[in-house]
Amino acid sequence: DEYFLTSRISTTLFDTAEGLLPYFPILGSYTGTKDGTAERDYIDVVDLVSAHLSVLRELLKSNTSFSSVEAFNVGTGRSISVKEMVTAAEEVTGHHLPVQIKSGFASDPPRIWASIAHV
């Protein structure tokens, strides 16, 4: 189960679809979310890096002091449930993904997403 805690959700989904993993773990079940699974603002790491590089390029081009920069959230501005991610992976791969509900973490909020109002 260590693998599930250290991998990105997309990697784990596609590894499950390819049969490299026996099931996809859904960590926790939550009341108050759209389908009982955690809702997150999933963003691909490549998009996140691209956003950081874009900001860095602009800072360097404008000779702006790094001490005067503002903080921005990078995300989609909406939450997607774990079950929605499973369904999307099934549609993309054409494979049914077996899932298992596992214990979540008490400190995990049921839903969280980035506010992109400041971008």
Describe the secondary structure blueprint for this structure.
Blueprint: H1 2-6, H2 9-17, E1 24-27, E2 39-40, H3 45-62, E3 80-81, H4 82-93, E4 99-102
Parallel strand pairs: 1-4
Antiparallel strand pairs: 2-3
Helix pairs in contact: 2-4
Q: What keyword list fits this structure?
A:
single chain, 119 residues, alpha+beta, two-stranded parallel sheet, two-stranded antiparallel ribbon, 4 helices
Summarize the structure.
The chain is α+β, with helices and mostly antiparallel strands. It is 37% helix and 10% strand.
For the termini, the CA-CA separation is 37 Å
Total beta-strand segments = 4
From the structure provided, what is the oligomeric state, counting identical versus distinct chains? single chain
Tell me the number of helical segments per DSSP (H or I, 4 or more residues long): 4
Strand order of the largest sheet: 1-4
Nearest-angstrom radius of gyration?
Answer: 17 Å
Low-confidence stretches: none
Mean pLDDT: 86
Label the overall shape: elongated
Spell the H/E element sequence.
HHEEHEHE
What do these coordinates show?
With about 120 residues, the protein is α+β, with helices and mostly antiparallel strands. Helix content is about 35%, strand content about 10%. It has 4 helices and 4 strands; from the N terminus they run ααββαβαβ. The strands form 2 sheets. Strands 1-4 form a two-stranded parallel ribbon. Strands 2-3 form a two-stranded antiparallel sheet. Helix 2 packs across helix 4 (about 80-95). It is elongated, with a radius of gyration of 17 Å. It starts with a helix and ends in a 17-residue tail after the last strand. The mean pLDDT is about 85.
